[in-house]
Amino acid sequence: MPAHLITRRPGPNRRSSQGTGRLRAAALTTAFVAVLAPVLSACGGDSAASDGGSTLKWTSSYFPTHWDPVVGGSGAQFRELALTYASLTRTDESGKAVPDLAKSWEYNDKGDEITFHLRSGLKFSDGEPVDAAAVKAAIERAQKQKNSALFGDLTSIKSVDANGLDAVLHLSQVDYQIPQLLGQRVLQVASPKAAKNPEKLDQNPVGAGPFVVTQVIPGTKALLKKNPDYWDAKNIHIDNVELTSAPDASTVVSGLQTGVYNFADLDPSQASAAKKAGLDVFVQPGFNASNISLNVNKAPFDNDKVVDAVRHAVNRKEFVDKLTFGYGEVTDQPFPKGYVAYDPKSEDAYPYDPAKSRKLLADAGYEPGDIKLNLVIPAEDPQAEIVQSQLAKVGIKVTIKIDKNWATPFFAKDLTLSLYGTTGRDSAAQTLTAHFGPNGPLNLSTPYEPDGFEAAIAKVRQTPLDSPDYTQVLQGATRAGLKSKALVFTYSQPNLIAKSKSISDLPKNPAHIDWTGVTINGGN
Amino acid sequence: MVRRVLTLTSGRIALVILTVIALLAVLGPLLAPQNPLATSDNTLAAASGSHWLGTDYLGRDVFSRLLDGSRVSVLGSLEVALMALVVGAIPGILSVYLGRTFEWITLRLADTLVALPFLLFAVAVIALLGNGITQAMLVTGALVSPLFYRVSRAATLAVARSPYVEAALVSGASVGWVVRRHVWVKVLPPIAVALAQTIGVGFIIVSSLTFLGIGIQPPAPTWGGLLASDLGYLSYQPWAPLAPALLIMITVWASNLLADAIRDVSGEAGRAFVNNRKARANRLDGPEPVSTGGV
């Protein structure tokens, strides 16, 4: 908005007939443009690119702010980075690690050393070879680079030996989670030559994934083309990708209808409109779990009864009904039901019971209104309003504070009450330690950890993934973690996607967007 | 001046609307039929007897939220206008009398402030000082103040060089007396026009900031905030944005209408304009003129 105001001089208003004519002409022109614009935009196709190949036009809520995977971390934008970066492993539809750049791997007998055997003849988009030296460089960069968001995930890796196409990882402890860990979320491998200049890599990604980035407009748009040197290029049937940062949620459906996009992350509030528009609306399975983070090192949460009162004050169904329009699920764990780490024995351990919550507060010596808390969040979020309303019903007064610099006090564990939502990790052990470990980034109560959790998670690491008791051991660790007083899980936000019917169905890999085998009609 | 504004239909309409809006700001929270913050399971409900404008995505009564949210919009726009008035008009008048150095500094300052986009600046200030509408509005008021500075300076210059003011100064009148006795009377009408116009601009700024979720801590309702949240649920309630949008539009329109009316009736030309209207009205009310002959 310009900073100019039109000064009106005292005196009668006299509008000349010439001025009126100009005004009418301007109004007519505006009306003409308003009518013409939608007509022209509707003429756009929805699948074929100008060069005749098939084009994926994906508008994403997680457009990468960093294109260096080491800086980007293991958050939700890994799905977009996976367009251009490949990893040692990936996960299948059950969430189990399967080959990607590594065609196979094996542990030593003790379980403290793992060797990944890379596919031969692969190269990065800058022509550098994909070999064990590149893997070693990627791991060491993730461990040592100053602005790495991944170093906390790689503490089990002591050193790496590069022998041609064999990368030997020496571990600091027995850890059978490594193949799960080194998937797309934690070790997308960049060209070591390009990574020598991390600042440049951050804007000009160079990987060995299914697509090659040809142009990046930071924060706005990225253009990619199919990588003919990708190891599974024969199963990639998309020629071009136009990745854009998602506009306002209310305009996404019209963008899909007019062919501006043919694939979009969708806010649940828009699902109904998308279905009415004849689009394919589907939920990609995922590990999303939102929580209320409590700091048990600070009053009043240093009182167990207050923590229990909050646990019983939370009506999870309200989150699902009001925020996900029925597409989400209630959850009291950081895993979806049916996933190997989901512990059925811990289900609904603290059911919604406001009367019990009020009694617990009274037992703790608090009258209604005695407890006043600031709920600090980074941006406006209806979740916070629901939490505020639910806690008000049991007599806890919550004031919502928006702090644009929220991340600093949150990760410094300075806040008393906050909200967080994870998109999960491919390694269940990593998810558990991130939430419940004494230094877990999502544990607002550091250095607190629930009793027995450390031993339980160590046992998970020591249990091979194909061991018959792996499931039991993993669920035991989940149970131990859920004793944490620092987290109250609420609901699972769905990975809701709308796409043009011209795009074929995607593989149902949890939280991943896998383009293998996906076709776009009219383009191929 | 109020009486003269009331002689115009546009002035009467503007004052009625702005009075209603002002009353909403004072009494709105008391008039709200339901608790504007109370959520319910009845989400995105259509208008009904119990919810005149339906409910929002958390089941809150939209009508009550509109009434409750009027105070923030009105106070915010008044803060902008009053801040701009104080920061702009006084230096504008004084720049004529306090010497060339003061004049030069204030002119350059006004030029600088005009160059700053006030909405972006308000966002930056909120980021710097914390989330609150008052600090943003006060800073925005300072950025809008060059309007008042230029208007008051121009009017003061016109008066300061008139023979009767020079005569008063030669006769020993103090600058303060001259400003109070002669200048202020001439400066007031254009300032009143600018003030009404700035109140309208203030509404737009408050609504824009709250539309972006800036300046207000949720769940406090605001007109801009309601408009923003309604846009996310158009497929369920396509009519929902109408109420907050119309309120914002009508209020801004009324402010501009008032500015026009003040401009039309102020000054010598305005006085003549009103007198001509009155004379014309009297002629129309009187007997038909009788023909004095001729072909």
CATH homology-level superfamily of chain B: MetI-like
Helix share of residues of chain A?
25-40%
CATH architecture name of chain B: Orthogonal Bundle
Largest beta-sheet characterization of chain A? 7 strands, mixed
Family (chain B): Belongs to the binding-protein-dependent transport system permease family.
Membrane topology (chain B): Multi-pass membrane protein
Transmembrane segments (chain B): 12-32, 80-100, 112-138, 158-179, 191-216, 236-259
Domain ABC transmembrane type-1 (chain B): 74-259
Set down the secondary structure blueprint.
The complex is a heterodimer of chains A (524) and B (295).
Chain A lengths: L16 H26 L12 E6 L8 H4 L5 H4 L7 E3 L5 E3 L2 E6 L5 E6 L13 H13 L12 E7 L2 E6 L6 H4 L16 H4 L9 E7 L3 E6 L13 E6 L3 H9 L5 E3 L5 H6 L3 E5 L4 E6 L9 H10 L2 H8 L5 E2 L23 H10 L7 E7 L4 H12 L2 E7 L4 H5 L5 E6 L5 H9 L16 H9 L8 H12 L5 E3 L1 E2 L2 E5 L25
Parallel strand pairs in A: 1-10, 1-11, 15-16
Antiparallel strand pairs in A: 2-3, 4-5, 5-7, 6-7, 8-9, 9-10, 11-20, 12-20, 13-17, 13-18, 14-19
Helix pairs in contact in A: 9-11, 14-15, 14-16, 15-16
Chain B lengths: L1 H5 L2 H23 L30 H36 L1 H17 L2 H12 L3 H28 L2 H8 L4 H37 L11 H9 L10 H24 L1 H19 L10
Helix pairs in contact in B: 2-3, 2-10, 3-4, 3-6, 3-8, 4-6, 5-6, 6-8, 8-9, 8-10, 9-10
